[in-house]
Amino acid sequence: xxxxxxxxxxxIGYLPAKDGLDLSGLAIDPKDLDLLLRVDIEGWKKExxxxxxxxxxxxxxxxxxxxxxxxxxxxxLTAAETVS
Length: 84
Description:
Elements: E1 7-10, E2 13-16, H1 30-36, H2 41-56, H3 64-83
Helix pairs in contact: 2-3
């Protein structure tokens, strides 16, 4: 919250780094932690499509910056898909 934690850049933004979380007192299997911090590229591509559908109802009243950010999200997801 205050910008001092460890984070990893992902296509959807920054997520906590595994070693940046205080998990003391918790019995979390490392495999479960990996799953929790994984970015589901296909799921997010579907979400981006749903966001685009929602935006379309506003026609030309939608702020261009929102359309730009959605385009950038799609580009990051596509780039991540080709890397993995």
